[in-house]
Structure formats: structure tokens, C-alpha cells
Write a structure and sequence with these properties.
- The protein contains 15 helices and nine strands.
- The protein has helices at residues 2-27, 39-56, 67-76, 91-96, 118-124, 135-138, 159-171, 184-196, 211-214, 241-244, 264-267, 269-277, 282-293, 299-309, 311-319, and strands at residues 31-35, 60-64, 81-87, 101-117, 149-154, 177-181, 202-207, 217-219, 254-261.
- The strands form three sheets. Strands 3, 4, 7, 8 and 9 form a five-stranded antiparallel β-sheet that branches. The chain has a two-stranded parallel sheet with strand order 1-2.
- The chain starts with a helix and ends with a helix.
């Protein structure tokens, strides 16, 4: 009798577990979109979510994660979309996962480099990366009194941050400048504070970005990009990445694209047609950055409002056509 009751108990438990599992599967989202930790990527992720819900009645989960984790998820099937993959920064990841991850053909032209403000140029004479080798000039960038200037080079998780460290070592200005890594909102706040206090500042920058709309920004002169001189090894590829890398030239022309799992083309071809048609302009990317960093709107709220204001544009994307 006890054995029979035990078996009945086991059966009931198994039935309950099966029901819970089925319920969890039923509640799972139709798509998972990775969300990076910069404003335009956050907004784009949520525009994709809001538009697909409105036009195709899909349940889309936006999940914050780093790009390397996102690519691994795209390859394994745990993630379906990454909204903003920068090139050439992520060339190695794109190559590594080429059999599993597809980049949308349409992208956004961009630029990466080192920036300063007009007032910094006027006060210090810093207008080129070669000026960063002059300790007398970079001393003006010292904000903590240790005699060494500081320069924000990006967030800790960005591939571009590692590349800026490589470039600093290659040019040689890492000897007299402390390279600061911190979230973008903190990095940009330091630029705002420097401008407000009429203090010099130099920082890693990219466009499209709201900083060019807020301040009189000067891009530092650099030797033109030369592929023969650009040898970049990322930390994920080699623990001795910095010593093995060299890049004493400007960045190559940049651009970024939506990426999606290749399996999505079979599972939900209507979604890949939509993703391939998204055609944001640099001005729209700047507006996204402005809304989040200056107006302090949440990416979710801005995205929902954007979708409501652009029904014809989104309808074209769903049909497979851009602007």
C-alpha cells in the first residue's frame, strides 16, 4: 500500500513538473533581442520589440547583455537579434560566428576616434594625437592632482575600449595619460562638467552621437588608416592581447548593422525580412542618444512613442522596403 501511494505521489509530482514545464514554454517569448549598454542600441532593441508586437503580434523579450554573450546566444539559439553590431570593432566575432549569425545588409555609417573641445584646443594647443605625447600639454588634463592627465576611453565591456588601449600604447600617450574606463553616461558627464567649468578634456568618441549636438567638438588629427599597420587582438582571443597588438593609425571607416541568428530565416522569415529593411539614419541615431542621455527618457518609452509616430515607415519594413 505504501509503495502504491509512493508511486501515486511520484506520478503526481511528475505530472505537476510537466505541467509547470509546459506552462513555462507557453509563456516563453517568441523572440529574444539582446540589448547593449549604449543609448542607440537600447532604443533600437525596444523599437524592434514594439514594432513586431504591433505589426506581427509577436511577444519579444528585450534582454540586457554584453556583445560577446549575445553572439554566443545567437549561435546557440538563445538569442535571436542584436540591434547594433559595430564594425570593424567586432570583425573577429562576425568571422567566428559566420555560420550562425547574419548581418543585415543595410547599416549606418559611423566614425570613431579621439575628440576634444574647441576650448581645449584654444587653451592647450591639443589638436592631434601627437600632442598627447607632450606631457606639458596633457598635464592640463589632470583633474585629481596626481600630475598625470586623464582620458576616458570607453566602457569596460566595449570592444572599442580595448582597441583604444591598443592605440594609446601604439602611439605612446599611455605613458602620460591615465586611461579611464567607465559607463558612457559617466564618461559623457565628465565632458559636460569640463565644458561647464571651462576645463580641458580629451576623450574617445564616436558618431553619430549626441555629444556633437551638445558641444563644439573637435576630432583630433591622426595618420590615415593603414591596414598594414592595424593589428588588433581582442582580450577574448588572447590573454596577451595588448602586447601582441599594434595600431598607430586612425580607425578604418566604421558602420553598424543589425545582426540576427541565421536560423531565424527559416523559423520566422517575416521577421528577417523586417530586420533587413530597417534603415535608420545617423540623425535618428543621434536623436535616440539625445532622448536617453539628455532628456532622460527611458529607451522603452522613446521606442514606443517612435513606433506610434512612424506607422508608415514600419509598415514598409514589414513589407520588406525601407524609406
Amino acid at each position: 500500500m505504501r509503495m502504491r501511494m509512493a508511486r501515486l505521489g511520484q506520478t503526481a509530482a511528475l505530472t505537476l513538473l510537466l505541467a509547470m514545464a509546459q506552462s513555462g514554454l507557453a509563456a516563453a517569448a517568441d523572440l529574444v533581442v539582446a540589448m547593449p549598454n549604449w543609448p542607440s542600441g537600447q532604443v533600437t532593441a525596444n523599437i524592434i520589440k514594439s514594432a513586431l508586437k504591433k505589426e506581427l503580434s509577436l511577444d519579444v523579450e528585450v534582454r540586457e547583455m554584453g556583445t560577446m554573450i549575445a553572439f554566443a546566444g545567437l549561435a546557440s539559439g538563445e538569442v535571436d537579434v542584436h540591434p547594433e553590431v559595430w564594425l570593424p570593432n567586432l570583425n573577429s566575432l562576425v568571422t567566428k560566428y559566420a555560420d550562425k549569425v547574419q548581418l543585415a545588409d543595410t547599416g549606418v555609417d559611423a566614425w570613431q576616434g579621439i575628440c576634444t573641445t574647441k576650448q581645449t584646443v584654444e587653451k592647450t594647443g591639443i589638436h592631434s594625437v601627437t600632442d598627447l605625447l607632450d606631457a606639458k600639454k596633457t598635464a592640463a588634463l589632470d583633474t585629481d592632482g596626481d600630475g598625470k592627465g586623464e582620458m576616458w576611453v570607453g566602457a569596460e565591456t566595449w570592444s572599442s575600449t580595448a582597441i583604444e588601449q591598443i592605440r594609446a600604447k601604439s602611439y605612446g600617450y599611455d605613458k602620460d595619460l591615465q586611461l579611464l574606463q567607465m559607463p558612457e553616461d559617466m564618461g559623457m558627464a565628465s565632458v559636460d562638467a569640463a565644458e561647464a567649468a571651462d576645463k580641458p578634456v580629451v576623450f574617445a568618441c564616436y558618431s553619430p552621437h549626441v555629444v556633437f549636438k551638445l558641444h563644439d567638438i573637435v576630432k583630433l588629427d591622426e595618420p590615415a588608416f593603414d591596414p598594414a599597420k592595424w593589428h588588433v587582438v581582442l582580450p577574448a582571443d588572447d590573454p596577451d592581447w595588448l602586447a601582441k597588438s599594434n595600431a598607430p593609425v586612425a580607425w578604418d571607416k566604421a558602420h553598424f548593422h543589425i545582426a540576427y541568428a541565421k536560423a531565424l530565416a527559416t523559423r520566422k522569415p517575416e521577421v528577417t525580412k523586417f530586420l533587413e529593411s530597417i534603415d535608420f539614419t545617423p540623425e535618428e541615431i543621434t536623436d535616440m542618444s539625445y532622448a536617453v542621455e539628455v532628456d532622460r527618457q527611458t529607451p522603452e518609452d522613446y521606442a514606443e512613442a517612435w513606433v506610434e509616430k512612424n506607422p508608415d515607415r514600419i509598415a514598409k519594413w514589414v513589407k520588406g522596403g525601407g524609406q
